[in-house]
Amino acid sequence: MKHSLKVTLLSVIAIIVGVFGGYLLRGNKNTTTPIVATTDSGVDIVAVVAEDPSEIKKGDVFGSQNETIFKDSAFGYLQAGGLEGEGSHALLRIGGKNQTVYLTSSVTDLDMFIGMEVKVWGETFKGQKAGWLMDVGRVEVLNTKGEVPQD
Predict the structure, then answer these.
(1) Which DSSP state fits 86?
(2) DSSP secondary structure of 124-135
(3) 3-state secondary structure of 136
(4) Is 109 exposed, middle or buried (0-12, 13-18, 19+ CB in 10 A)?
(5) Residue 116 domain-assigned?
(6) pTM (predicted TM-score)
(7) How far is Cα 18 from Cα 71, in angstroms, rounded to an integer?
(8) Are 140 and 60 in contact (CB under 8 A)?
(9) Does residue 46 lie within any of the structural domains?
(10) What's the first-to-final CA gap in the chain, in angstroms?
């Protein structure tokens, strides 16, 4: 009878701990998802992807966590739409249309940052129509309520 009582008591404690733990975890709403890769040196976070644009804050960084891989960078106001099929988004910058950077990204969803002022890092490609075409690998949020630059 003693053994049965111990098993029952331990089962009840395990259920309580499980329910309480699940409740706590449910309340922790993480707005980012790390993309993890295993390298020769172990497990590395390759990129962080935004899940909910309303939870993004100034200073948040998404995409690659390695600051040294991308040599090209630019900052400005992000809007949807490329230039005649080149890029999925445009980074509007002071100086007019000839300063616009057309963007695509294989690392992060740029739609999450539409209407924000951001700094992007990536690799520049030669475009057919676009003067500057970049594949973005890293995004830093400078202002969540961006303003279109005035020329």
Answers:
(1) B
(2) EE--SS-SSEEE
(3) strand
(4) middle
(5) yes
(6) 0.69
(7) 47
(8) yes
(9) no
(10) 84
Residues 131 and 72 in one domain: yes
Which residue type, as a one-letter code, is found at position 4?
S
Is 6 part of a structural domain of the chain? yes
Q: Phi and psi of 6, rounded to 5°?
A: -65, -45
Give me the phi and psi of 102, to 5 degrees please: -95, 135
pLDDT in tens, 2-15: 667 776 766 657 67
Which structure tokens are listed for 69?
């891989």
Can you point out the beta strands (E) in 1-151? 32-39, 42-50, 61-64, 72-80, 89-92, 101-104, 117-125, 133-143
Q: What share of the chain is helix, strand, coil (3-state, %, to 5)?
A: 25, 40, 35
The domain containing residue 24 runs over which residues? Answer: 1-28
pLDDT in tens, 44-101: 444 466 677 788 999 999 888 777 888 899 999 999 999 999 999 999 999 988 899 9
144 touches 58 (CB < 8 A): yes
Reduce the DSSP state of residue 1 to 3 states and report it.
Answer: coil
